Amino acid sequence: MAMTLEYGLLLVSLGLIAGIINTLAGGGSNLTLPALMVMGMPADVANATNRVAVWLQCVSGMSGFRHHNKLETQDIVPVLLPNLLGGLCGALAAAWLPASWVKPLLLGTLLTMTLVMLIKPATFGPPEGTPTKRVKDTPMAWLGLLLAGFYGGFVQAGVGFVLLAALCGTLHYDLVRGNALKLACTLAFTSLSLVVFIADDLVRWVPGLILAIGTMLGARVAVRFAISANPKVLKAFLFVMTLIGCIAAYAF
């Protein structure tokens, strides 16, 4: 399908919603990936093109969180080490393995995250005043960030839930700071993924950049909301997004 004004406006609109969802929770790609595939892109090309919007959304969101002093910049490098390793492996797997692997992995991951929220809600938001931990002192955090990176490099959709489980559940960041670091992680492994996808000529730049206009605006809106929102509201939003993500993954 050729790019038209109507389709461009649709991409910007869906990008806006996806940017909000991805910044506060995860799963926004469940909206944007089907839209790109409706345009006629194969699943692997849509997956690669979507990363352009995700990358720019992360830049926009991180800038907003940093402006409000909610981005723990000193913790970025320790968190990124296992995440980048996993992201590189995931991107290589996505380029080489059949696209039919994406849906089962996506659905299984989202169902697991939904169950975790029901059984152990503190995983996505420790009690107020809980001290944070360092990655090097927390083996489970290192493993969780490694797996989150692999999943993000392979699928991308819903990776925010996995990252928040590692950042909030094992390192005890609150949801706002966890979301800020989540964007840093997503930016890092998305950068690696893009290199792999660009080398394989899978990225379609025009729709990717049009989609990015919306995701960047959505990230800015989401940061302002996250700063002022009640933590219980953020948790409820996170839970609803996992349920929607499960339905979307099953349906599409």
Automatic annotation (TrEMBL):
Membrane-spanning parts: 76-97, 104-122, 142-168, 180-199, 205-226, 233-251
Highest taxon, organism lineage: Bacteria
The keyword Cell membrane belongs to this UniProt entry's keyword annotation: yes
Localization of this protein: Cell membrane
Membrane topology designation: Multi-pass membrane protein
A GO CC term attached to the entry: plasma membrane
Keyword tags: Cell membrane, Membrane, Transmembrane, Transmembrane helix, Transport
Chief place where the protein resides: membrane
Record has Ribonucleoprotein as a keyword: no
Family: Belongs to the 4-toluene sulfonate uptake permease (TSUP) (TC 2.A.102) family.
Protein name as it appears in the record: Probable membrane transporter protein
